[in-house]
Amino acid sequence: MKALLLIDIQNGFCPGGNLPVPDGNQVVPVANTLIDSGQYDLIVASQDWHPAGHGSFASAHPGKKPFEMGTLSGKPQMMWPDHCVQGTADAELHPDLHVGDIDFIQQKGQNPSVDSYSAFRDNDQAALTGLAAYLRDKGVTELDLCGLATDYCVKFSALDAVDMLPGVNVRFIEDASRGIDPVGVKTAIDEMRTRGVTVIDSKDALA
Ligand SMILES: [Zn+2]
């Protein structure tokens, strides 16, 4: 059973959104090619889904500006612009994404006192989203993932997939992903590779 996991391909992370990843919209046609390829038995998307005033937002911390480090529940936390607030257009999946072919959407980031980069669990690793159990129940043995942003939500999702789905072959599709910081992207790809994630391009996934 082969699954595709599309990470946070949302308006908020594309140009024009509140937390745009450079060229984030360019993952959409590649993701659509993967969705339409017939290679996958199961297609899942994650969706950053914050309540207004979420603790990862700089606006929730007096004196803090976006992209500064701060703290949340006593732990270091990047201060983000307000983004992907539940029910807003910013939180919707990109309108060109073939959402009609997505089998399941895993929302994340609802708890205001902890951030959730990974689609599998909160950053403090205390609360699970349920996605690992869902994929296990479906009998997934191969998991390809891609999306936004490589150096945050994609990386943490890939590493959690390796940790939480033992025996599943996890692959990161590089050209179907974009990151926030070029240095961070390189580090993230190195880290994924070191931890057992295979790095591929969409042509490998389609072969
Ligand atoms: Zn977020």
From TrEMBL:
Keywords: Hydrolase, Metal-binding, Pyridine nucleotide biosynthesis. It holds the Pfam family Isochorismatase. Residues 3-203 form the Isochorismatase-like domain. Pathway: Cofactor biosynthesis; nicotinate biosynthesis; nicotinate from nicotinamide: step 1/1. GO terms for biological process: pyridine nucleotide biosynthetic process. SUPFAM superfamilies: Isochorismatase-like hydrolases. The keyword Metal-binding applies. The keyword Chaperone does not apply. InterPro entries: Isochorismatase-like_dom, Isochorismatase-like_sf, Isochorismatase_Nicotinamidase. Its EC number is 3.5.1.19. GO terms for molecular function: metal ion binding; nicotinamidase activity. Gene3D superfamilies: Isochorismatase-like. PANTHER family: LD05707P (PTHR11080:SF2), PYRAZINAMIDASE/NICOTINAMIDASE (PTHR11080). Belongs to the isochorismatase family. This is Nicotinamidase. It comes from Rhizobium lusitanum. The gene is pncA.
